[in-house]
């Protein structure tokens, strides 16, 4: 009898964990399918992720309404816990993908569970490092573009200085020749 009670408690605990896990995923699915937010966030054609097209609007409008919070870092952390990866982050947009996630497949969605927080800590740290590396590459490319523009400006400035010098010299020569 006591063993049966222990198994029932284990089953109840498992069900509570499943319900808690599905809470975030259910809210995410509801948010993604809500047409009210189609200009802010949309589902990828592959159905395995989404793009937040306007991060500021997402934080101000969508998060408080759908998740009762305004802390984007918490939302991002939850996505990491559920296996979503940040693939592309630009100025005001970000893309998240999870190969196990399919917005139109209830079976696939039910397979997504919150990962062990210790493993997730390292995975989150790795994702953050990867994001930093990507941002570093973008910055490096921008710096190179700025250097090229700087060189062009310097050449134009030198050329303009030479042209101005020649014009002044010509004017002086013309004035001297008139006398």
Automatic annotation (TrEMBL):
GO terms for molecular function: DNA-binding transcription factor activity; sequence-specific DNA binding. InterPro entries: HSF_DNA-bd. Residues 20-115 form the HSF-type DNA-binding domain. It holds the Pfam family HSF_DNA-bind. Keywords: DNA-binding. Belongs to the HSF family. PANTHER family: HEAT SHOCK TRANSCRIPTION FACTOR, HSF-TYPE DNA-BINDING DOMAIN-CONTAINING PROTEIN. This is HSF-type DNA-binding domain-containing protein. It comes from Paramecium pentaurelia.
């Amino acid at each position: 009898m006591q063993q049966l009670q222990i198994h029932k408690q284990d089953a109840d605990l498992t069900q509570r964990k499943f319900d808690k896990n599905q809470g975030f995923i259910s809210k995410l699915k509801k948010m993604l399918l809500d047409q009210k937010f189609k200009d802010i966030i949309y589902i990828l054609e592959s159905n395995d992720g989404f793009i937040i097209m306007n991060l500021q609007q997402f934080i101000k409008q969508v998060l408080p309404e759908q998740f009762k919070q305004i802390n984007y870092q918490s939302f991002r952390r939850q996505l990491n816990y559920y296996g979503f990866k940040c693939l592309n982050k630009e100025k005001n947009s970000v893309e998240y993908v999870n190969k196990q996630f399919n917005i139109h497949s209830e079976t696939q969605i039910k397979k997504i569970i919150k990962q062990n927080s210790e493993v997730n800590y390292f995975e989150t740290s790795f994702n953050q490092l990867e994001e930093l590396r990507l941002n570093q590459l973008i910055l490096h490319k921008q710096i190179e573009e700025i250097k090229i523009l700087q060189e062009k400006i310097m050449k134009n400035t030198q050329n303009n200085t030479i042209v101005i010098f020649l014009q002044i010299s010509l004017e002086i020569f013309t004035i001297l020749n008139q006398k």
